[in-house]
Amino acid sequence: MRLFTSYSLYLTYSILIINDAILLMNKLPTITLTRKFHRKEQRILVGFMYSKNLIAIIRNISSARWSATLKSWHVESSENAHKNLARAFKGHAFIDVKQLKPQPHVALTNTSLKRHRQLTDEQRFLLNNFVKYLKGKRYSESTILTYSRLIADFIEYAPDKPITEVNNKDVDGFTQDILAAKQYAISTQRQFISALKIFKKYCPECHIDDAKLERPKKSRTLPSVLSQREIIELLQHTKNLKHRAILALIYSAGLRISELLNLELKHISIDRKQLFIKNSKGRKDRYAILSNSFIPLLKNYYMTYKPDVFFVESPKGGKYSATSIRSFLKTSCRNMGLTKTVTPHTLRHSYATHLMENGVGLRYIQELLGHARPETTMIYTHVAKKDLTQIESPLDTAFKQLSKTDNNDILSLISRN
Q1: Is 371 known to be catalytic?
Q2: Helix H or strand E encompassing 391
Q3: Residue ranges covered by each domain of the chain
Q4: Is residue 65 annotated as part of the catalytic site, yes or no?
C-alpha cells in the first residue's frame, strides 16, 4: 500500500499539522515519521525520544504497534492512520513528515518485482489493461507476469511524466540507473526491451521509437553440470522420499521445474515408459523418457504419499512450490559437501550433457528437451567431455614423436628443476 497516492495528498496531510509548527517555539518534542517495510507490509515508523506522555497517547491509536525488532512504534500506511496521528499528538508534539515526501525517482532493489509500487490510479488502470492485452495475445502466465512487472518498474521510474510523453531517453535512463546500476542480468534487460516493444503496440501514443530499441547480446555462458557420480550422491543425501523422487525425476527426464510442477499422474505411463509433457514452454507438447531405474522409486513414493492429481502436491493439496524444491535441493547439496551452485535447472543441464556423452544424437536431445531451435541444444556440445578427452594435446604429440628418435627421456629433462 502506498503512503501517499499523490503529492497533493502529502500537502493535504501537511495542512492538518501545519498549526503544530508554531508550537516548536515552545520546545515541544518532535515525532519523526519514516517509511519502512515490516513483515512484508509497508508501515510508518513513529520515532520520538522516550516520553511516558507520548507513549500513553500512541497506545490509544488503534493501528499503533510496538516492534522489538525495529525498536519503534509503527502504524499502518493509510490516510486515516496519518490523520489519527495528527489529531492525537496535536498540542503535544510536532510531527516531522519531511522523510515521507514522495521522491521524483525511486531507486529499485533486486526484490522490486515483489514489492508495492508507488503508482497513481491512472497508471494502475493502464497496467491492468496492458495485462489484459497480453492475455488476449495468449502469452504464458510467466511472460505476462515478467513483462507487466518490468513495465511497472519503468513507469514508476518516471512518475511525473504522462505515458504519452515517455520517450527513448527515459528508456536509456531506466537501463542505466536501474538495470545496469543494480546489476540485473543481461537476460532481464533483454526481457525489458521485449516488453517495451509489446507495450508500444498496446500504447502507440507514447513517444518510444521501438525501432531504435536494441537488445544487448546474450551472455554465452556454459551451463553448470554435475557428474553422474555427483547425481547419485545427491540422491543418496536427499533423505526425504518425496524430495528424492522429485530430484530423480527432474534429472532422469530432463524436466524444467515448471514441467515437473504441472505434471499430472494421468500423463505418466509406466507401460510405455513415457511422460507426456503438456503445454510446456512455447505452448508445445512433447514426450519424455521415464527411466527404468526410477520406476521402483516412483511406486514407493506413490504408495507412501498417494498424490491425487499432480505427480507432486503440496500438503494442503494442489501444486507443489518451486521455492520448496530449490530449498531442499540446497540442503541436499550442503549435506553432501557440494560447494558449487546447483539449481533444478542444473539437473536438466546434466541430463542433456550426459546424453550427449553417451552418444545420443543432437536431434534426439533437442526433441527430448523440447528446444525449438537446434542452436539452443548445441551449447551442450561445449560441455560434453567424452570427445574432448579423446583429443590429444599437441604437446603430447610432440613428446611422442621426439621419444621415437631420441634415446633421452625428454619429459624428465623438461620436468626437472
Answers
A1: yes
A2: none
A3: 7-100, 112-212, 228-386
A4: no
Length of the chain counted residue by residue: 417
Q: What contacts 301, CB < 8 A, 6 or more positions away? A: 241, 242, 245
Q: Is 252 exposed, middle or buried (0-12, 13-18, 19+ CB in 10 A)?
A: buried
> Can you give the three-state secondary structure of 294-343, one letter per residue?
HHHHHHHHHHHHCCCCECCECCCCCECCHHHHHHHHHHHHHHCCCCCCCC
Where on the phi/psi map is residue 66: left (φ > 0), alpha (ψ -120 to 50), or beta?
A: beta
> Which residue among 65, 200, 256, 278 is the active-site one?
256
Q: Which of 215, 281, 319, 326 is catalytic?
A: 281
pLDDT (tens place) for every residue of the chain, 417 residues total: 344 444 444 444 444 444 444 444 456 788 888 877 666 567 788 888 888 888 888 888 877 888 877 788 888 877 777 778 888 888 888 888 766 654 433 333 333 444 567 777 788 888 899 999 999 988 888 889 999 999 998 988 877 778 888 888 989 988 888 888 888 888 899 999 999 999 999 988 888 988 888 888 876 667 788 988 999 999 999 999 999 999 999 999 999 999 999 999 999 999 998 999 988 887 788 888 898 889 999 999 999 999 999 999 988 888 899 999 999 999 999 999 988 889 999 999 988 888 888 888 888 888 888 887 777 777 776 666 555 556 566 666 666 666 666 655 654 545 554
Residue 284 gets which letter from DSSP? E
pTM of the predicted model, to two decimals?
Answer: 0.56
345 in catalytic set = yes
Domain 112-212 has CATH 1.10.150.130: yes
Task: Quote the CA–CA distance of 67 and 52 in Å, as a whole number.
Answer: 17
Nearest Cα residue to 209 out of 219, 198, 200, 221: 200
Q: Which residues contact 339 (CB under 8 A, 6 or more apart)?
A: none
What separation in angstroms does the CA of 405 have from each of 148, 293, 408, 415? 71, 53, 9, 19
DSSP 360: -
What gap in Å lies between CA 122 and CA 155, rounded to an integer? 11
Verify whether residue 363 is a known catalytic residue. Answer: no
Quickly tell me which residue has 506522555 as its cell. 53
CATH class of 228-386: mainly alpha
Q: Give the span between the Cα atoms of 51 and 64, in whole angstroms.
A: 16
Of 43, 74, 244, 348, catalytic: 348
